């Protein structure tokens, strides 16, 4: 039987909360791209900002698949690291020209960078409590 300190228990629960929250947000963003903007529309947007359209499809897959993986606690560290790339890409290419503040027209780069930092923290924390990927 393993006994965890209060700090370890708190970190375990913190990772769980971050997994659920960020996973749900990524899932919703991916589903919006899939059902509202459509894959072709998302690819077209990526092309309009100078990126290959294929990255639009990849982003949809990463947001939906990564969101589900985070919610379930599967490969949390790897998924979190992959999402940092998605978020920094959004910060630079999608919002970089709009200034810092996300309340600027078109949204600034502040918010995606904050989420990238959050993903780094989750990558360091790992799966946390109630995870399918947790090693016992």
From TrEMBL:
UniProt-listed InterPro entries: DoxX, DoxX-like_oxidoreductase
Keyword terms: Cell membrane, Membrane, Transmembrane, Transmembrane helix
Localization: Cell membrane
Record has Membrane as a keyword: yes
Cellular component terms per the entry's GO annotation: plasma membrane
Residue stretches spanning the membrane: 12-32, 44-62, 69-93, 113-133
Entry keyword Endoplasmic reticulum: no
Topological category with respect to the lipid bilayer: Multi-pass membrane protein
Domain of life per record: Bacteria
Membership in a protein family: Belongs to the DoxX family.
Protein name (Swiss-Prot/TrEMBL): Putative oxidoreductase
Source organism per UniProt: Paracoccus lutimaris
